Amino acid sequence: MERTDVVVRKARWTAAATLAVIAMTAGCGSESTSGKAADGTASVTAGATKEPAGTAPSHDTLIERAAGTWKGITAPTDGSLDTLVIKDGKATAKGAKLSCTGTLMPAKEDGQESATITYKCQGGKDGGRGPGHLKMKPDSSALAIDFDGPSGGWGGPVDSYRRA
């Protein structure tokens, strides 16, 4: 039993570290010069912004912005959910040995818009997830679901996705 706790704790720390690295590097990069002419002055298109393909407008609700197909950012495992499809507030998540469905419910977490979900999976097992809380990058390019884990436990996994 102790070995399982160590493995689970190590997996959680790995997931947390991965998310921290992604969050830190997501905002990094060089200043764009796409809106400048060769002489350095602003061009006519400087004020136009383009949203990445497949993203929903930012004025929609979190659940509406989450609509679409998502691919996991970590290497697949037996307990991972590698593909997530959200349509009309319904979620379908599939992995190598796990297939789950659920409905996203609007919520607030720390004053921020959030959504909660509880998966119902084939065979009655949800990979130790329990209730989950959806969070999304402001540009709608990535999302994560932070699961509470089983009742009385120390927490659950974090499933992280990028748009497919």
Q: How many DSSP E strands?
A: 10
Range of strand content: 25-35%
What is the element string, with H for helices and E for strands? HHEEEEEEEEEE
- The main sheet orders its strands as 5-6-8-9-10-1-2-3-4-7
Q: What is the number of helices?
A: 2
Parts with pLDDT < 50 across at least 5 consecutive residues: 23-57
- Specify the structural class: alpha+beta
Overall radius of gyration: 19 Å
Largest sheet: 10 strands, antiparallel
What spatial form do the alpha-carbon principal axes imply?
Answer: globular
Instruction: Calculate the mean pLDDT score and round it.
Output: 76
Helix content: 10-25%
Amino- and carboxy-terminal Cα gap: 38 Å
Task: Please render the helix and strand layout as text.
Blueprint: H1 2-26, H2 62-65, E1 68-72, E2 83-87, E3 90-94, E4 99-103, E5 105-109, E6 112-118, E7 120-121, E8 131-136, E9 142-147, E10 158-163
Antiparallel strand pairs: 1-2, 1-10, 2-3, 3-4, 4-7, 5-6, 6-8, 8-9, 9-10
Keywords summarizing the entry:
ten-stranded antiparallel β-sheet, about 20% helix, about 160 residues, 2 helices, alpha+beta, globular, about 30% strand
How would you portray this structure in words?
- The longest helix has 25 residues, at 2-26.
- The chain is globular.
- It has a ten-stranded antiparallel sheet with strand order 5-6-8-9-10-1-2-3-4-7.
- The chain has 164 residues and is α+β, with helices and mostly antiparallel strands.
- A hairpin with a 4-residue loop joins β3 (90-94) and β4 (99-103).
- The chain has helices at 2-26, 62-65, and strands at residues 68-72, 83-87, 90-94, 99-103, 105-109, 112-118, 120-121, 131-136, 142-147, 158-163.
- 21% of the residues are buried.
